[in-house]
Amino acid sequence: MTQYLDAAALRELAERAEQTDPPPCTCTKTPLDGWQSQPLSLDERQLEQIGTLVCADEAEPTFAEHLPGEGGYWSEHAPIAPRYFPYNRCGVWKCTLCGRLYLRYTEGGGYFVDQRIRALKARLIEDVPL
């Protein structure tokens, strides 16, 4: 089973990863600072899940979003609030080639399923209660 990460553990993990100087990598061909559909250029085999933000104690994670100010869901400046959608449905993934960290979840709509991905940035993590 994948380890649950609360906001403090997620921030610590992100800060440790950001202290290294990762080499150039194919995982950065497409900018992933804000949510994106997972690009075809990113070989999924180079990603390894290292944690989850899905809390097993919650029967159904909320669909409420935490978007203060004028930022939107797709913005590279949008806060990463682990208790809110879509973060509360994310896995935490590491590129096995360079060590960069990503958040991923599956967006399901009426007629589609879309794997979404966003780079994990420690400075954007906010521990906001529901």
Can you lay out the helices and strands and say which pair or pack?
Elements: H1 7-18, E1 36-37, E2 47-52, E3 91-95, E4 101-108, E5 113-119
Antiparallel strand pairs: 1-5, 2-3, 3-4, 4-5
How would you explain this protein's 3D organization?
There is one protein chain. The chain has 130 residues and is mainly beta. The protein has one domain (7-124). It is built from one helix and five strands, in the order αβββββ. The chain has one helix spanning 7-18; strands spanning 36-37, 47-52, 91-95, 101-108, 113-119. A five-stranded antiparallel β-sheet has the order 1-5-4-3-2, with no helix packed on it. A hairpin with a 4-residue loop joins strand 4 (101-108) and strand 5 (113-119). It is globular.
Distance between the termini: 26 Å
Q: Into how many domains do the coordinates divide?
A: 1
Structural class: mainly beta
Sheet with the most strands, sense and barrel status: 5 strands, antiparallel
Determine the fraction of residues in helical runs and give it as a percent range.
under 10%
